[in-house]
Amino acid sequence: AEIEQGWNVIHQIESHEDSLCLFAYLNGEHTSREIEEKIAGNEEASALLRKLKSHQLIEEREKHQHNLSDIPVVVFLGHSGLLVRSGEDMFAVDPAIAPSTRMLADSNVPIDSVLNQVHAILITHNHWDHLYYPTLARLRRDMKMIVPRVTRPTFPNPPMASYLRSLGFTNVEERDPWEILEFGDITLTLVPFFGEPFGLDSHFDGLTYHIKFGKFSLYGSVDTCQDEIGNMEEAIGKVAEMGSPDIFIFGSSGFRHKPAYTAANLRHFSNELIRRPDLVRFHPTQSDALRWAKRLKPRALIPYAQFLFQGQKSANLGIDAVLSHNAINLDGIPPKHAQWGSGLRNMANQLGVPIQLLQPMQGLVA
Fold first, then answer.
1. pLDDT digits (tens, 9 = 90+) for 248-281
2. Would you place residue 15 in the very low, low, confident or very high pLDDT band (cuts 50, 70, 90)?
3. Are the CB atoms for 150 and 173 separated by under 8 Å?
4. What angle do CA 187, 192, 196 make, to 5 degrees?
């Protein structure tokens, strides 16, 4: 009811563009008076703030106080979102922090405030669960945003840079696969993305990522598998040549288009995928993840991207302990995903490496 009421309040504002800047200040770092001073002269944002207050949709709290050294070196933000830290350097990927996560995770990490202190944020591709506006709205507008360079704009392949700039972001960079970017003690290598075919000629430009942070490294494969352009095998091989990552973070939902014609975007009922049955499945399976892990030889596995928009209070874990013990910890998988959990257990046993399911806002500490 509060969400619906808040949405109705927002729709009473005439200029959405001018009012958007308000949300960047609702991150726990500013008092009500400070916010009023920052938006002084912006009548649309000021009107929205007054309406939200009048409907009791904003509550005054003490400012968040935290030291960066208290932030884990890896924080799982939920779904496919990650934050990594090395010393005072931080970087984030695909922050999609759903309302259910905020309510149920019960985390001590002031995540909105922390996200506004990262050096940069990578958005891997243009789908809503990665390019997630409710979280983006709370970010400072001069945040460095890294997105894939769009090679050929189409309906399924819109230019994310233009979208972010229309939301007020002023520091948006389009980047290509195999570029290497450094943010202090964090090194990001951008890796190709093949996957999520939604009909023929639906290929979009996306990125997976290898991140080195301090003495640790990880590779995140997001939602990749194959599409009409290619598959991930060559890219996985090149990542393996960089050296075994400490952690392989992977999706393995195996989602399929049911029925196949629903995959065709605006070309509904075209049955075009009948000619490409290999593309009816648009997310990787556990067989894909197992095959890639055999090549990458990681020290530990972390599954994600299973659309588990939930949360529970979970203590942080020591990253060295996770990497050094062949433990299988899949606690927290809902009963309806029991088959997925069983497959993950078999995968870890075959590889002889630990596997750790992280709850949203749960972290790994050094």
1. 999 999 999 988 888 876 676 778 888 888 999 9
2. low
3. no
4. 130
Dihedral angle sign, alpha carbons of residues 231, 149, 143, 26: negative
- Cβ neighbors of 234 (< 8 A, separation 6 or more) are none
Alpha carbon dihedral 242, 248, 251, 252, in 10-degree steps, equals 100
DSSP secondary structure of 140-208: -TT-EEEEEPPSS-BTTB--HHHHHHHTT--EEEEE-TT-EEEETTEEEEEEE------STT-----EE
Residue 253 contacts residue 340 (beta carbons within 8 Å)? yes
Residue 111 has pLDDT above 80, yes or no: yes
Pairing verdict, β 300-303 and 81-86 = unpaired
| Residue 1 predicted with pLDDT over 50 | no
User: How do strand 81-86 and strand 74-78 relate by DSSP bridges?
Assistant: antiparallel
Show the tokens assigned to 148. Answer: 């894939």
Q: Which tokens belong to 98?
A: 């759903």
Q: Which pLDDT band holds residue 340 (cuts at 50, 70, 90)?
A: very high
Closest CA to 95 of 127, 132, 120: 132
- The mean pLDDT of 28-32, rounded to a whole number, is 82
Band of residue 6 on the pLDDT scale cut at 50, 70, 90: very low
CA distance 302 to 189: 19
Do 19 and 44 form a contact (C-beta atoms < 8 A)?
yes
Three-class SS of residue 203?
coil
SS3 153: coil
Q: What are phi and psi of 91, to 5 degrees?
A: -150, 145
Assess whether the previous peptide bond of 158 is cis (omega < 30° from 0): no
> Which residues are within 8 A (CB) of 50 and not within 5 positions of it... i.e. 6 or more apart?
none
Q: Which residue has the higher pLDDT, 331 or 250?
A: 250
Q: Which candidate, 104, 99, 176, 186, places its Cα nearest to that of 138?
A: 99
